[in-house]
Amino acid sequence: MVRKLAMLSLILTLCTGLSFGQPSPKSKLEGRISLSGAFALYPMAVKWAEEFKKLNPGVKIDISAGGAGKGITDVLNNMVDLGMVSRDINPEEVKNGAFEFAVTKDAVVAVVSEQNPDLKTILAVGLTPNSGDDIWITGKSKTWSAAFGSKLKAPMHVYTRSDACGAAEVWAKYFGKKQEDLLGSGVFGDPGLALAVKKDRIGIGYNNVGYAYDFNTKKQIPGIRVVPIDLNKNGKIDPDEDFYGSMNDLIDAIALGKYPSPPARDLYFVTHGKPKNQVVIAFLKWVLADGQKFVNKIGYINLSKEIIDKGMKNLN
Could you read off the pLDDT of 73-93 as tens digits, one per residue? Predict the structure, then answer.
C-alpha cells in the first residue's frame, strides 16, 4: 500500500511538472488593430486577420474597404493603424508621414460582359495600350468595331471607378496617365464595377484580379470575362499570351513578369510614421513572414525576398 501511494505521488509530481513545463499554444498578445482602404487588398487582409487571430485570440482586428484614397487619408489622420493602399505612395504623402510596407502583389485587368454579342472577337484580338487609350483616355473608340474590329456596331459603354483608388490609378498609369484622365461612367468600388459590367452586355471596365476571379474555383466570375492583353501588339492573342483561363495561370504570369507592370503592382500597408505600437509591429512581422504562405491561396503574388527583408529591417 505504501509502495502504491509512493508511485501515485511520483506520477502526480511528474504530470504536474510536465503540465507547468508546456508552453501555451496561444500568444498573450493583446490589443486592437484597425485597417481601412483598398478594395484590392481587402480579401487578403481579411484572410491574414483570420489566421493571425487564431494565434493571438487577444487581438481584435477591424477592417473596412473604401478605396486606396480613403486608406491613406484615414491613416495619416490617425483614424486607423494601417492604411491599405494599392498604388505607389506619392512624395507629398511621404512628407506627411506615410511609411509604407509592401505586403503582396496583384494586378488590374480589363473586363467585359460574358453576354457581349461579339465576345469571341474581343477575346481573340485583346487590348493594347493604344486601344485602351482610345477607350478610356481620348474617347476616340466609341464602338466595339472601332476598338476591336468587331462586327458589332453598337456603342461601347465605358465604366471607370468613381472613388479615389489604386485600381484606377494603376490602370491609367498603363496608358501613361492619371486616374482623373480616365473617361467612363463612374462606379464606386470593385464589386460595384464588376456588377455594372456583368449587367451591361455592351459594357467594358476594369477590376482587380480578386474581383474578376472566384477564390474558390479559381475561374473567372460568372457573367464577366477578362480581356487579354496583346503583349506583342500583332492584333491577336497568341498562345503564349493566353494565360487568363484560371486565377492560378494569371498569378504565374504576373510572378514571371509576363503580365505588364503596370497594370500589375505592389500592394501596401501604410502607417503614420514608423510604427511603435507593438501589436501592429507583431502583425506586420507575421504578415511578412508566416503570412506569406496564404498569399497564393487566394489569388495574390508573393513578394521577392529582397522586398520582404527590407520590410523586416524597417520594423527592427
Answer: 999 999 999 999 999 999 999
What percentage of the chain reaches a pLDDT higher than 90? 87
The CATH homologous superfamily to which domain 107-255 belongs is: Periplasmic binding protein-like II (3.40.190.10)
What is the grid cell recorded at 256? Answer: 514571371
Q: Which CATH class is domain 31-106+265-315?
A: alpha beta
Read off the amino acid at residue 294: F
Q: State the amino acid at position 81 in one-letter form.
A: D
Of 71, 75, 119, 118, nearest to 225 (Cα)? Answer: 119
β-sheet bridge partners, residue 253 = none
Model confidence at 17: pLDDT above 90: no
Q: What does the alpha-carbon distance between residue 157 and residue 237 come to, in Å, rounded to a whole number?
A: 23
**Residues 169, 265: contact at Cβ < 8 Å?**
no
Quote the cell numbers at residue 314: 524597417
Domains of the chain: which residue ranges? 31-106+265-315, 107-255
- Unique residue bearing C-alpha cell 490617425: 78
297: left (phi over 0), alpha (psi -120 to 50) or beta: alpha
β-strand 264-272 against 98-113: which pairing, if any?
antiparallel
**Which CA distances in Å does 96 have to 36, 213, 273, 276, 277?**
18, 36, 9, 17, 19
Q: How many CA atoms lie within 13 A of 55 on its CB side?
A: 11
Q: CA 280, CA 163: separation in Å to the nearest integer?
A: 27
Global confidence as pTM = 0.85
Rounded-to-integer distance, Cα 7 and Cα 108, Å = 69
Pairing of strands 59-65, 31-37: parallel
